[in-house]
Write a structure and sequence with these properties.
This protein is α+β, with helices and mostly antiparallel strands. It has a domain at 30-77. It has one helix spanning 37-50; strands at residues 30-31, 63-65, 76-77. Strands 1-3-2 form a three-stranded antiparallel sheet, with no helix packed on it. It is flat, with a radius of gyration of 15 Å.
Length: 78
């Protein structure tokens, strides 16, 4: 999956890394502002626990529609 096309200026704060593949992942798609993303994450964690799974490793986020405004309800990410 490629989420960025173009030239990316690599520096001390920005790096390009390839994450290892995983066999199974629980996902949630959040439609709305960054200010309410904690509700989506809490629902995901509740589902994980209720279904006998556990969280291992770091989370991953993919921004489909996003920006710099915290309260923009048109954002979509998972």
């Amino acid at each position: 999956m490629v989420s960025f096309e173009g030239i990316l200026a690599i520096n001390a704060r920005v790096q390009v890394l390839e994450l290892p593949a995983i066999d199974q992942m629980a996902c949630v798609i959040h439609y709305g502002s960054y200010n309410t993303s904690n509700q989506a994450y809490a629902a995901l964690l509740a589902w994980v626990e209720a279904n006998g799974y556990s969280v291992l490793g770091a989370s991953r986020e993919v921004y489909i529609v996003g920006g710099s405004e915290q309260d923009n309800d048109s954002y979509i990410y998972y």
